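stage 2 :: seqdesign
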């Protein structure tokens, strides 16, 4: 977590605020060549294009986790993403490395839909209904670090949008049922892809007593899904997919698995942000591709593929992802090692790392 004094430092000095985009780009490039391999900039695909342009590596959550885990010569990892991503890097990197975030106030609202208190309460209730030793927690990477640690401490595993199916397959060989959190849509879409019947899935609503579930349904279930959602991806609707197909006959529709099951069911393909990038790259020139994911990525793909027609299912942006900009990136680079260093409690780190490494070695 970022300390309060570092939040205050977010109010950038006027001399930085006065710089133009071109000046910022030049200065950031200068600092990058000054630091060489000792400072590496990682950026998620949803970052602003000008930020992605400055990155040494861009990727989806899994690729960024792998990169943070394997960087050899970097002393500093400047992570352009939201809180769960930067903390994941701080959990996975080596002890002598420091992770720095340009925007400590960038969170993922989905991650905050499952607090440690609510998850613990749910777990305790579930343990009075089923054999808890045969219930495996599967925590989506878009989660709080302490919830990842809770999962690691109980034999569970982390997943990302690019490996959920493999993780759930592994879990189904290990236990009787799994408790998936916090994104219900990713859970439902994965169950559908794996052929888990609807009557074997229950939704756990943390706002209701006993999750709003009948204990008999829990006993008969294979999957218990936390009722969390991403506000960016639940903006997309089946109606929009139908309209896109009417307006652009022959178009391809590709969406992120955080979209609801109707949207995913009506799409031609679904996958992580890197899957979407690759899908567009591999489409034939002249094709029309309609994309259901965050706006910064859709806009960048439009710019990068002028030989294809790329359209957003609708304009849905993640304001948190856009909190990183050239100004705060320049500010952390020019004060490297002194500001916005990401810290995670040592006990949380230990157990969250177990759950993350379980995924990475799968
Ligand atoms: P990816 O892991 O597919 O990059 O997704 C991260 C995310 O936050 C999606 O909303
Ligand atoms: Fe979280 Fe959704 Fe933003 Fe991804 S797009 S970081 S899930 S709020």
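stage 2 :: out
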């Amino acid at each position: 977590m970022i300390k309060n004094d570092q939040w205050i430092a977010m109010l950038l000095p006027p001399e930085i605020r006065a710089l133009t985009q071109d000046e910022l780009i030049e200065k950031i490039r200068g600092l990058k060549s000054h630091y060489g391999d000792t400072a590496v900039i990682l950026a998620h695909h949803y970052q602003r294009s000008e930020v992605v342009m400055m990155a040494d590596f861009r990727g989806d959550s899994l690729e960024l986790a792998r990169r943070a885990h394997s960087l050899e010569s970097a002393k500093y990892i400047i992570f352009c993403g939201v809180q769960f991503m930067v903390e994941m890097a701080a959990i996975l990197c080596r002890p002598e490395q420091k992770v720095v975030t340009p925007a400590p106030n960038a969170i993922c609202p989905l991650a905050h839909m499952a607090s440690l208190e609510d998850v613990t309460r749910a777990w305790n209730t579930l343990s009075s209904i089923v054999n808890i030793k045969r219930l495996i927690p599967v925590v989506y990477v878009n989660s709080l670090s302490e919830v990842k640690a809770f999962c690691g401490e109980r034999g569970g595993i982390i997943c990302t949008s690019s490996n959920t199916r493999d993780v759930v397959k592994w879990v189904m060989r290990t236990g009787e049922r799994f408790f998936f959190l916090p994104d219900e849509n990713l859970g439902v879409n994965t169950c559908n892809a794996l052929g888990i019947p609807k009557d074997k899935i229950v939704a756990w609503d943390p706002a209701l007593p006993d999750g709003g579930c009948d204990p008999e349904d829990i006993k008969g279930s294979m999957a218990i899904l936390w009722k969390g959602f991403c506000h960016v991806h639940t903006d997309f609707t089946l109606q929009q997919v139908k309209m896109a197909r009417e307006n652009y006959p022959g178009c391809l529709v590709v969406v992120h698995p955080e979209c609801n099951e109707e949207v995913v069911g009506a799409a031609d393909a679904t996958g992580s942000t890197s899957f979407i990038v690759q899908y567009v790259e591999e489409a034939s020139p002249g094709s029309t591709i309609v994309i259901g994911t965050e706006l910064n990525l859709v806009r960048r793909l439009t710019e990068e593929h002028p030989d294809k027609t790329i359209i957003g299912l609708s304009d849905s942006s993640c304001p948190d992802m856009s909190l990183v900009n050239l100004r705060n990136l320049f500010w952390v680079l020019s004060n490297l090692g002194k500001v916005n260093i990401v810290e995670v409690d040592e006990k949380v780190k230990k157990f969250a790392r177990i759950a993350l490494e379980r995924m990475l070695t799968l």
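stage 3 :: structure notes
- Residues 45, 60-61, 142, 160-161, 230, 256, 258, 272-273 surround 1,3-dihydroxyacetonephosphate (ligand 1) (CB under 6 Å).
- The radius of gyration is 21 Å.
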